Amino acid sequence: MRARSAEAFAHHFRRNIFMPLSISLRLLLPRVFMATMIGGAMGSGVANDNASGGYDDLVKLFADWRAFEQPPLRDGAPDYTAETFARRHKELRAYRDRLAAIKPDRWPVAQQADYHVLRAEMNGFDFY
User: DSSP letters of 40-69?
Assistant: First the structure.
């Protein structure tokens, strides 16, 4: 069951990566949450899941990243002030460190693509 959830997530991840963030979050986060909850209660059927830095770690990092990527609100509007952006830019280092701890070289190509898409999103955040 867990392997199937990871595959479903991977398909959804690749299919929706270019959707607007608000739509993607609304659709993706409940599924990631459910996959994590169901997967945690059942045994692993995917290679590398029990190893540190496995695909499940990437799935968790992706969910955490998407939550972080949403700008905080200030008076009901996204807060893009220099102070907030400087603080969030410092937090980016922790997300990059978590990504660097994941080694996807022995994963199936589709899962490796998920890793590189998340890396590209982090690079895009750094660009601003």
Answer: HHS---STTSSSTT-HHHHHHHHHHHHHHH
- Per residue in 67-76, pLDDT (tens digit) is 998 989 999 9
Q: How far apart are CA 10 and CA 114, in angstroms?
A: 7
Q: How far, in whole angstroms, is CA 45 from its chain's centroid?
A: 21
- What's the whole-model pTM score? 0.59
Which secondary-structure segment (H or E) carries 85? Answer: helix 82-100
Query: Which tokens sit at 11?
Result: 């398909």
The pair of three-digit structure tokens given for residue 38, joined into one six-digit string: 């169901």
Whole-angstrom distance, CA of residue 3 vs CA of residue 94: 28
Q: Which amino acid is at 29?
A: L
Coil vs helix vs strand at 118: helix
Q: Greater confidence, 116 or 11?
A: 116
Q: Give residue for tokens 């939550």.
A: 67
User: What does DSSP assign to residue 80?
Assistant: -
At 120, is the secondary structure helix, strand, or coil? Answer: helix
pLDDT (tens digit, 9 = 90+) per residue, 20-70? Answer: 444 454 555 556 555 555 444 443 334 444 456 899 999 999 999 999 989
